[in-house]
Amino acid sequence: MTVVGLRRRVAFELATLAALTSIFLVAVPTRPVWVEAGLALFAAALVAATARRTRAAIWGPPPTAGREGVRHSVGHLLIGTLGAAALFAVIGTWTGRAGPLFPATMLPTLVAYLPWAVLQQVLFQVYLLGRLRVLLPASSLAAPAVNGALFGAVHLPDLEITALTTVGGAVWSWYYLRDRRLLPIAISHAVLGTTYYFWIRGEDLLLRWFSAAG
User: Fold this and answer.
1) In whole angstroms, what is the distance from residue 2 CA to residue 193 CA?
2) Which of 1, 59, 77, 103 has its Cβ near the most Cβ atoms within 10 Å?
3) pTM of the predicted model over 0.85
């Protein structure tokens, strides 16, 4: 397929996805976690079904192979993630909403959060960012910025989380474009999501998920 043909196909695919997603977000502004998880699993299954074509036509080989690529990605992400988590701890303590810094359910929450973070990052990095990269090849910042904005948008109507996930989504997208390593990004996502809810909002995510499932 030619570059022009690929761009046309991707543009049609994303326009259709945007229309369906917008309708869903307007029709269902507040969504139980099990609904989001089910939709994400369905979407991930579709991504897996087209993974070979996506890898060949859209991504190609990673820019940095082997352990060097892993170290390159993990080193910078680790510093940024720990810095942001520390900021969450300080803000939560200062506002009086943090409670115990490390409650008993925090580690199990982080472990449970990781598969959910992997699932979201598969959809937004492997699938969506790759297609935005086809449509926006001229700028190294355009595709991550748009992907971050879309990642934030699916967290509406919570404006605080939308703002944070927009920034986080853009940063993670930039790292994925640079290193093509998904797991470090998903770990960063899980750590920041867990610490944000526990330390900024004072919410026990594990209890929240069990309540939603019940």
Assistant:
1) 40
2) 77
3) yes
